[in-house]
């Protein structure tokens, strides 16, 4: 079943790629159902906070009509940055699964370990599940920019 959500996460990343955005997709799952999905829209919205994770969080909160995302898991194609990692803590999501490392700005395991910080009032479980398609899409995107 997890494969289905990973595929949707990669589809969202591809939508971002096709739109000229950094190819990051995110999917929020609760009780075996996708409740929100999004992809980066930083360029199209001209908003540096319009990361896939934040857009998916907002959609999920609206759909559930709640302040927190207890019982939810997020699948995201790239390791969350500091802004997104802390947002996951703030919304009290249970778990995040990411498919590619962000060696420059990753805030889960690469540059920082925010989700392991004991000073936060909520702990988000995390899993790095390397997926070649996520890594290759990012590589191709940045290759085209050069």
From TrEMBL:
One of its GO terms (biological process) is tRNA wobble adenosine to inosine editing. Zn(2+) binds at residues 51, 81, 84. Residues 1-110 form the CMP/dCMP-type deaminase domain. Keywords: Hydrolase, Metal-binding, tRNA processing, Zinc. Its EC number is 3.5.4.33. Binds 1 zinc ion per subunit. This is tRNA-specific adenosine deaminase. It comes from Thermocrinis ruber.
